[in-house]
Design a protein that fits this description.
alpha+beta, 4 helices, eight-stranded mixed beta sheet
Length: 188
């Protein structure tokens, strides 16, 4: 995938060298937001391993940079590990605190949707932490995701119960035709 640009911002595939910045962004969200239900920030080694897993499955892992500084990241990974789910993936998207409110989340998510379709996915699923997370819900809605469910009080973080919002976006030919054979080299 080639780098995609919008003004001074570049969305491109993530590299190993980006991972310290990616880990720092995620660390912030783990400790300060309900967008993720993780409680303890993963190590840089953990984040490198997670990225390697995504890439080994032939799925996209993107970063958004401004002036060569990583300001956000997005990726998708299989929704469930069983082989029947291999054409459906859950998206994840996080921005640095200083990058919020600039429309960059929308830009990043739009590119992730395009990359996911190119990777052969037919469905993207958003599992949005906290039903009060209006920014993420709105970003997904503007990217063409539809609300498909709410699971109440399924997470406990910051001394309170949190819902998750489920949204989906159909990609490519969706369920109109059988998928071509799965990408060679991708593990199940």
């Amino acid at each position: 995938m080639q780098a995609l640009t919008s003004e001074s911002v570049v969305v491109r595939p993530g590299r190993d060298a980006d991972m310290p910045a990616v880990a720092a962004i995620y660390h912030h969200h783990v400790l300060n937001s309900t967008g993720t239900f993780e409680i303890d920030p993963p190590t840089l080694s953990d984040m490198l391993q997670r990225r390697a897993e995504v890439l080994a499955r032939g799925l996209p892992y993107l970063v958004l940079c401004e002036a060569d500084r990583v300001q956000g990241f997005a990726y998708c990974n299989w929704f469930k590990p069983r082989p029947a789910y291999r054409f459906s993936a859950e998206d994840s998207i996080y921005l640095a605190p200083q990058a919020l409110g600039r429309g960059w989340g929308q830009l990043l998510l739009n590119h992730l949707c395009e990359a996911a379709e190119l990777a052969g996915l037919r469905k993207l699923i958003a599992v949005i932490g906290d039903s009060a997370n209006a920014a993420s819900i709105g970003t997904h809605r503007r990217a063409g995701f539809e609300h498909v469910g709410l699971i109440r009080s399924c997470g406990w973080k910051f001394d309170r119960w949190l819902d998750i919002v489920l949204m989906e976006k159909t990609l490519g030919a969706s369920d109109q035709v059988p998928p071509e054979s799965f990408r060679p080299g991708a593990s199940i």
